Amino acid sequence: MSGRDYSKLANGWEFIEDTAYDNESDLLHELRRQALEAGFEQGSAAQARFMAIQVRQTRARSVIILGTGALVETVHLIGALNALPDDVPGQLTAVDSSAQGTTLIRRAFARMQDHTHVKLRVVNAKADVFLPRLNPGDYDMVIVTGDEQNYSGAFDHADRLLRRDGVLMLCDALALRGAIDTGDAGSPATASATASSDANGRMMRMCQLIDDAFDDERFDSALIPVGTGMILSIKR
User: Fold this and answer.
1) How many CB atoms lie within 10 A of CB 46?
2) N-to-C CA span, the chain
3) What one-character DSSP code corresponds to residue 135?
């Protein structure tokens, strides 16, 4: 593909994101603002919408999201679970590494709970501490977003927790964003070098995660160009 073709794709990707954002509800726009004011950068609107569509398409009943202040994604998932028939209420487990993130999620759910039959469990814990406590084979979908540490051991956890044909989604697979600690760097050149080193390190780790996904024989995986990139894996 030529550089012009890639530029057109980038413009198309931006249009998709803008369209998804414009079609979010006023509540979601308000929650985005609240989360940003609290210091939590929110994920792609198109990616959150894709998660919700996947919940409905696969008729997932029991979903786990690992996040860090992932307020918008959580609300999208609640809406998707609520759209399913209520003979067996959907269940969402939101595991957040930030206490402030769990507070935002609980407050948002309090505004929705009179209009939803979804059961929500919110846990402030690190993934590698909480997930081993859950029953194996009880879940239809596991979603990972937020801090890099949330991705550690994702395939091992998902293999234990998911039913056969269960779905694992790893968000932001193409993103290089994240907090960059420049320490006491005294000059712009030093700060720039530190930032570049951090970005390169993150890129290498995410590339390794993609390679690991395709090499893992327990899952069938695809790299999906939605939002900031997603690894979508189905348990065999």
Assistant:
1) 21
2) 34
3) P
> Which residue shows structure tokens 């003979």?
87
Which of the residue ranges 113-122, 155-164, 170-179 would you say has the lowest mean pLDDT? 170-179
Best mean pLDDT range from 80-84, 112-116, 189-193, 231-235: 231-235
Q: What value does the mean pLDDT of the chain take?
A: 88
User: Residue 181 corresponds to which amino acid?
Assistant: D
CB atoms within 10 A of CB 175: 15
Can you read off the two tokens belonging to residue 22? 């414009």
- The pLDDT of residue 1 is 63
Taking the CB of residue 17, how many other CB atoms lie within 10 A of it? 18
Confidence of residue 186 (pLDDT cuts 50, 70, 90): very low
Q: How many angstroms separate the Cα of 235 from the Cα of each of 17, 216, 232?
A: 28, 10, 10
Apex 170 CA angle, 169 and 176, nearest 5: 155
Give the CA dihedral 101, 105, 111, 115, nearest 10 degrees.
Answer: 170
As a whole number of angstroms, the distance between CA 89 and CA 235 comes to 23
Alpha-carbon distance 25 to 31, whole Å? 10
Say whether 158 sits in a helix, a strand or coil.
helix
Q: Which helix (H) or strand (E) holds 77?
A: helix 71-82
The pTM for the full model equals 0.87
